[in-house]
Amino acid sequence: MKRKRAITIVESLLLALLFLTNPILDVFSFEAPVPEWTYWMKTDFTHPVDMFATWNPTNESLIRKAIFLADANDSEGWREQAARLYLGYNVTDDQGIINHLERIYNYEDCLDFDLASLVRFIYLDINQTKLGNPLLNTSLKHQISDAFGKCKYWYDEPHTTNCIYSTENHQILYHSAELLVGQLYPTSTFMYSNRKGYYHYTHAKERIIQWLDWRARLGFSEWHSNVYYNEDIAALVNLVDFANDTEIVTKSAMVLDLIAFDFATNYFNSTQATYAVPQGREYDGHKEGKSATDRASRDSIAEAAWLMLGIGAHVENSTGSMAAIALATSDHYAPPPILEEIAKNASKSIEQWERNGINMEDGHEYGITYDEEDITYWWGMSALLAPQTIVETLRIFNKHNIRGELEGGIDLLTTALSILGFLRGMSLGQYSNALNIITQGVCLEAANIYTYRTQDYQLSVAQDHRKGRNSMQSHVWQATLDVNATVFTCSPGEITQGFEQRWVGGWLPRATAYKNVNIIQYDRTTLPLEAEFLLLILRLIFGPDTHYIHAHFPRWAFDEWVQYGDWTFGKKGDGYVALYSYKPTWWHNNHDLRVQGSKNAWICELGSANEYNTFENFTTLVRQAPMWISPQALGYNIRYTSPSQGLMSVSWDDPLQVSGSNVDLGPYKRFDNPYCTQNFNTTTTIITLPGTSQRLGLYFHNATRRYLS
Amino acid sequence: MAIIGVLISRVNVGIELFVANLIYAPIAYLFIALSGLTVIKILQILQAPSNTGKLNLKQALALFGAFFIIGIVLTVVNVVLYVFNIIIIIYIIIIGVLWVIMALLANKNIVKSEFIYVSLVSLVFTLGIIYGALLNTFSIPISIYFAFITATFLQSAREMVKSYDKKDRGGGFISITNEKERDLILRVSLGFQVISCIFLVMILFSNIAYPVLYLFMMLIGLFFIISAMILILKSMREKKDYLRMSWLLKYGILFELISFLVVGS
């Protein structure tokens, strides 16, 4: 007995000693330094495609490029060093570039953003060296190469990191970098994958082709993203400029053309331009205009859109955009002239319908499985927790020890879902389905976008888009009179709490629009009670103040504004906007008009001096318009007799009717506008300019890009 | 019971309406239920005027009217504020008419008053299920009707058996004069329990969201009910275990309510 006790005491002491000395031992432990990467760099590249064999970029685009490069050359920013290299000057900030290598060595999230710029530096230097003008010093080139050799390019490589690979923009950035870096060091063995460069090239090529083909057939999951098109453009221009593969070069250029076409047909007002459309992923900072001195940030893709098409204007100190730098320093990509012409033409007026993306349950219809082979399509849609993909996603995450997304909280969520599902006798997938207004709500599913533009206003709406679901960052509708005078609504809460967003994401409405009138209903069904209870707890912890719906109505941005009862009116230039709320509203501040609760109906009608002569006439006719709104168990029954469109009626589930006829709310064609009509899920895009012989043909099935003037 | 009705029928009901009904339904229906219980008191006063306690007939009638009107007003306020719903108003009026009809039937001895008492006590609570459901939606899921039938028959069965439970503070409404009557009551109670079991099981096949969890709770409830049924069969031969019957049925009702909550959660 005494002996046993003595042994136990000794064991306990040893354990205590181990516990106490562990930190001390750490101080004296040495990590072996990571050896430098030994590599051989290939430099004899020849561009496989003459991108301007049959046509040239417009003179205007070349002038814009020169203006941008001159400003970038004067900038101290690290990305702008590419402009110096392109112009034949040495970089001025070696240390700034080296500082960004730390992100790669530390495997920090978004290292792929830096990879894109670093890849461009190396290849531009190779081009200059061919001209007898090597610019980057050997030490800097060596350090960049070393970082390339130690980087993790995809989730299936060893080494656990915090990087997120799953989103659509991260995918193309990583694949683009992996291909171009693999191409640079084809026979060298990369240190963490233990694979040669040629393996990385092949690994990335297959995934790039898949990514490009998905964009061609199905559009973008991060549709119209003001922020993430920036990243997509940079990665794609890199491929066009530096890839040694005809198919990749051509298809990348074609997808860039699609983005340019998107800008050309969706930008409002070419002088003070704004990308005034719904977006799959957006941030408050780009949307919320608090005051004349604290406006919404300029569109992240504004410089890129200006460079590509001459939309809007260049801002002298706005030269750090990845996309703009890539476009300005590209010798092989420019949008065909027809797109510039369309941009000028379309800014005046348009009525168009377009579709991006598919729904979660449509995978088999479009030939996309839910297995690892195609899982990145769904991940690109933020569909990690959706019923169809949650189990496979977790299996892959655990198999490859993927931490980036998990540390965003997904592992905690899936554990909670598993436990609650077990208590209800349901599998994880089944329980995810029970919560699909959230687990599928975050998915960037099919968006059928309707845009109506006159010279005085634009209304753009994602029609009937996932009503009653909770979204991370989607921006579903917007009425625009100018870059600051924008009106839209949002019901913040739940997932957006984690992003501290109040103007994008949240509970999505049923927005249904016809020409200049949009009817918006907010409501949602109930979740299982334990989920509602969890949401209540989350709300109390993170945001007790989000039990409201609000309208962005920046009074400061209008020439004139007035309220009559439930109607709020604004005038900017010759454009007018009217916003009705079923519930009583109050002004939270100068731009935030709120109603209490999670259910409301709004009506937005736009007008102009051309249509109504005066603002007073507009306010009188609109506020006297007969209206009948009746709350239902879900949503409302709404009958509104618009002074411009006549009787409009809609409910939560019924079609939108105008004068007794159903309005098409989708699914739309891929493009349906005066310049292009293309069915969804097809691989040929023909863009024409009416009244001219100009024609751009994008044939993805055989990687042919043909412009005829 | 009104809360259960709101919970079970919440599919395709908006969150705001659902939360409002969760709050309004029990408060409004409480007064409707109280008006039903007041009818029982009125009947007792009519039948034994000397043994009325503190209330006289006029006061009881006034109380009935007050409770019922408050219940209607609260319901009207709810539907005006949220979703206008004429069906629920009609439903409450039907309930009121039902109370009056039942009172008249008992008072005129057209139907045995004991039967009316038992029915009233059951319906006062179980009609709340349909009330809660109607507040949410016009198209009530079939599981609501099954739940209503189950609860009504089981509650009635227990009320019948309660008369044998001398320790039950509430006592029973049925006065047993002879063995023949006792056996008849027990047989009727048994029949009601069988019906409630059938509909309790039928809920499982009515497209509910969480059948596995419901099955688990249902089996526990069935255990108690079937145990009570076995005791009833035994007590038809022997005069024993009446207290336990009532106790078993009480717990049967409890687990039945929990299973209804599972259906709606």
Q: What does it look like?
A:
Chain A is α+β, with helices and mostly antiparallel strands and 709 residues long. Chain A is built from 23 helices and 26 strands. A 10-stranded antiparallel beta sheet of chain A has the order 14-15-10-6-5-3-2-1-22-23, with no helix packed on it. In chain A, strands 8-9-16-13-12-11 form a 6-stranded antiparallel beta sheet. Residues 21-31 of chain A have low confidence and may be disordered. Chain B folds into 2 domains: 1-137, no CATH class; 141-265, Four Helix Bundle (Hemerythrin (Met), subunit A) (Up-down Bundle), CATH 1.20.120. Chain B has 9 helices and no strands. Chain B is flat, with a radius of gyration of 19 Å. The interface between A and B is medium-sized, with 22 and 22 residues.
Shape of chain B: flat
Distance between the termini of chain B: 14 Å
Strand order, largest beta sheet of chain A: 14-15-10-6-5-3-2-1-22-23
- Largest interface here, residues on each chain? A-B, 22 and 22 residues
Give short descriptive properties of this protein.
heterodimer; A: 709 residues; alpha+beta; 6-stranded antiparallel β-sheet; 23 helices; 38% helix; B: 265 residues; mainly alpha; 9 helices; flat
SSE blueprint:
The complex is a heterodimer of chains A (709) and B (265).
Chain A (H helix, E strand, L loop, with lengths): L1 H27 L30 H15 L7 H7 L6 H12 L5 H20 L7 H12 L18 H17 L12 H22 L9 H15 L3 H21 L17 H4 L14 H8 L12 H7 L8 H10 L3 E7 L18 H6 L9 H11 L9 H14 L4 H7 L1 H4 L7 E7 L4 E5 L7 E2 L5 E4 L5 E5 L4 H5 L6 E2 L2 E5 L2 E6 L6 H14 L5 E5 L7 E5 L2 E6 L2 E7 L4 E2 L4 E5 L3 E9 H4 L2 H9 L3 E5 L4 E7 L3 E5 L6 E2 L2 E2 L8 E3 L2 E3 L5 E5 L6 E5 L4 E5 L1
Antiparallel strand pairs in A: 1-2, 1-22, 2-3, 3-5, 4-7, 5-6, 6-10, 8-9, 9-16, 10-15, 11-12, 12-13, 13-16, 14-15, 17-18, 18-19, 19-20, 20-21, 22-23, 24-25, 25-26
Helix pairs in contact in A: 2-3, 2-12, 2-13, 3-5, 4-5, 4-6, 5-7, 5-9, 7-8, 7-9, 8-10, 9-10, 9-13, 10-14, 12-13, 17-18
Chain B lengths: L1 H7 L6 H33 L9 H25 L4 H22 L5 H24 L5 H21 L16 H24 L8 H25 L6 H23 L1
Helix pairs in contact in B: 1-2, 1-5, 1-9, 2-3, 2-4, 2-5, 3-4, 4-5, 5-6, 6-7, 6-9, 7-8, 8-9
